[in-house]
């Protein structure tokens, strides 16, 4: 699947839209976009080449959907109907930074990114202005990554 499928977004169910939104808002897809887009403007041709997985391709798709739902609900009035459209309370009450780390760790794992590759990926976002933020964000993601990876080994 690629971004071109979004032309028919009105034919997609809410869960699928939330899943795609989660993947698109991950650091993994940000890095992919930066490698595909070679100029300062984004062309439709380059967007059509972006690899988006199908919901059924990710073992964590349900968690990603629930995380994105909670992140959207932070906008109070605009997404009040999401609980009715997408049942589930797995991430209700989680802090914003925790949801972001959980989302990114799950996307990284489902894309098959190793722990070291995740750290290297996050280093690409470092700049003088955002060095501390990226370090803290990386640590949250890696902590989550380690917890999730450890859980996989215990299954």
Word description of this protein:
It contains eight helices and no strands. It starts with 13 loop residues before the first helix and ends with a helix. The protein is mostly helical and 155 residues long. The protein has helices at residues 14-24, 27-36, 44-48, 61-73, 82-85, 96-110, 115-123, 131-154. The model has no long low-confidence stretch (mean pLDDT 87). It is globular, with a radius of gyration of 16 Å. Helix 4 (61-73) packs antiparallel against helix 6 (96-110) and helix 7 (115-123) runs antiparallel to helix 8. The chain is 59% helix and 0% strand.
How are the elements arranged and paired?
Blueprint: H1 14-24, H2 27-36, H3 44-48, H4 61-73, H5 82-85, H6 96-110, H7 115-123, H8 131-154
List how many beta strands DSSP finds. 0
User: What form results from the Cα inertia axes?
Assistant: globular
Helix/strand structural class: mainly alpha
**Element order: H for helix, E for strand:** HHHHHHHH
**Count of helices?**
8
Q: Estimate the strand proportion.
A: under 5%
Oligomer: single chain
Q: Ranges with pLDDT <50 over ≥5 residues?
A: none
Q: How many angstroms does the end-to-end distance come to?
A: 30 Å
């Amino acid at each position: 699947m690629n971004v071109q499928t979004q032309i028919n977004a009105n034919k997609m169910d809410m869960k699928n839209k939330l899943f795609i939104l989660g993947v698109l808002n991950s650091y993994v897809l940000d890095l992919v976009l930066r490698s595909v887009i070679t100029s300062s403007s984004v062309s439709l041709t380059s967007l059509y080449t972006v690899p988006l997985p199908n919901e059924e391709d990710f073992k964590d798709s349900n968690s990603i959907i629930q995380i994105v739902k909670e992140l959207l609900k932070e906008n109070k009035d605009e997404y009040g109907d999401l609980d009715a459209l997408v049942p589930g309370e797995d991430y209700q009450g989680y802090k914003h930074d925790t949801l972001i780390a959980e989302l990114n760790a799950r996307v990284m794992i489902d894309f098959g990114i190793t722990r070291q590759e995740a750290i290297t990926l996050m280093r690409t976002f470092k700049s003088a202005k955002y060095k501390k933020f990226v370090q803290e964000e990386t640590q949250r993601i890696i902590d989550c990554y380690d917890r999730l990876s450890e859980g996989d080994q215990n299954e």
